[in-house]
Structure prediction request, 68 residues.
Amino acid sequence: MMVMVAKTTDGRFVEVVRVAETVAFSDEPGWVMICMDWQQSERRKSQFRWVPASTRFEWVREFVGAEE
Prediction:
């Protein structure tokens, strides 16, 4: 399983779940869906957030781990 993790400029670690050029709620192009609490196994809808692709991250890395 591969997980893409990013560090925000305010020091939080988030999972990059999806990247989309268009979304239904905005005419602006370029969006990234992140999971704010990516270490939880039981995720809730409130933990996911769409942010503009222009959002700055300190770094973004892919991690490959063992299948559970």
